[in-house]
Fold this sequence. Notes:
There is one protein chain. Strands 1-2 form a two-stranded antiparallel ribbon. It is elongated, with a radius of gyration of 26 Å. The protein has one domain (55-243, 277-545). It has helices at residues 23-48, 54-85, 91-109, 131-155, 161-180, 190-231, 249-256, 260-263, 266-275, 285-294, 298-318, 320-339, 349-373, 379-405, 408-423, 434-451, 453-462, 468-488, 494-508, 514-545; strands at 113-115, 429-431. The longest helix has 42 residues, at 190-231. Helix 1 runs antiparallel to helix 16 (434-451). The protein is built from 20 helices and two strands. It is mostly helical. It is a multi-pass membrane protein. This is Phosphate transporter. One of its GO terms (biological process) is phosphate ion transmembrane transport. GO terms for molecular function: phosphate transmembrane transporter activity.
Amino acid sequence: MPPLKAQPPIDAPVTAGFLGPDRNWHLSAGAVTAVTVIAFAIWSFGHAGAGVSPPLLLLAIAFGLFMAFNIGGNDVANSFGTSVGAGTLTMKQALMVAAVFEVSGAVLAGSSVTETVRSGIVDIDSMHVDPQSFVYIMMSALLGAAVWLLLATKMGWPVSTTHAIIGGIVGAAVTTGLVTGTGGLEMVQWGEIGQIAISWILSPLLGGIVAFLLFGAIKRHILAPAARAIALGSHGFDDAEDDDDDDDDEEDEERRHMPASERVSELQQAAFAESAALDLTPGGPGAELVEQAAGLSKKKRKAARKIERKAAYHALEKRVPPLAAGAAVVIAAMLVFKGLKNVGLDLSLGGGILLLIMVGIAVWMAVTVFARALKKQSISRATFIMFSWMQVFTASAFAFSHGANDIANAVGPFAAVLDVLSTGEISEEAAVPTAVLAAFGIALISGLWFVGRKVIATVGSGLTSMHPSSGFAAELAAAAVVMLASVLGLPVSSTHILIGAVLGVGIVNRAANWKLMKPIALAWVITLPAAASIGAVVVLVLRAIF
């Protein structure tokens, strides 16, 4: 097996020269962002017409793009954290995948018509608010949510962007009602706020339970045979070694009396972690397995290894394909029924089920062929490659779905503002031009690259160590819970679900970082009031200026 290079910390400081070794990437991302902002501003003035206030429209553009930027830095980074943390994707590869699938999801399946936020958490209709005040409320909500998201991102806390924009709207609307005498706290629908509070517990709990069960099954039935085969390796407990290596009896005898901690190198520990995340610390099951293997003669170890390798490849060929097929069905259902509903894809229930069955069968067959082809690889490498590819597909699907749905947290309020500035009145619905979706999609990617590393580090390594198998399990569990919650109408947050799934994986490996989870949970609770407070201040400033 080729050496596995240790990955540098995700948020490692950059000190090599001007802007560090990624100078060209920084400059390119900055240039694309700057061109997008300028082009979008020119388009917006042309779209809004001559009667619009230039300073107000410029502020609206800045607030909207700033919100999209911070959604990328927090929410998109949260989505890619497991992939980058597992080593499946580098930061640059994550950027490219996000650039393609996030922007495609926003442009192809982003809401073509967005309801202006008039009822729901806050009953704005009851205020009989004038169009100008409505613009101030939406702009303040965007900035309030964006500022809080930036603060949370800088701290490495993954929070709900949906809760942030809701908080911004609550703070700005209630403050406007109190100032104008048209309403107050009675406008807030506290039952909806209660559902948000429920999601703080329900979302991570559901994500954690599903991930715990899923990864536990993967570890027992797929990864454990691979780990045993590695432990029984003929030389250094690395299954990449040739069985025919002629170690002399004296060397073999010496190795039996060496402590397990000395015999198992960093590379070999990585192979264990990739294959089964076994505990190699003294007294752990991995260390015990190494000791047992060391006590066997070379002949017996080779015979046992052949049996375990056969079982490991059998697990890859027979158990991974149905797992991949099930994952494909869940991801396809999420895309068809949640991400592609706005592109005119009107499938009946029977047609949708038939499509999902075809996808599942096709993936089952394809993965079976792929697993057979991997028999020429060492078992640790075959396992790593198999789950890496599966995780790439789940990450790509998540990115597309995210671009299609969660970008509305920035696009919705901005589209409402742009519509009011263009028409002078508050419409029941506001069309979202493609230019808005494209510009905000690019802002998402920019946020991921420039400020997303701390959140990626938190999700990818801070809460627990991630490897392709565990990252795949976390992402699949989160997708399944999101789909189930959508069907049942449960008040959940996709961000909180994924964090719960990561913790579920950590519980299986007995390595969950509960200490780090404490400030994250606190951040969830204060997201709504923090964004509301900032939104309230911003709306007062806007009313004073304009």
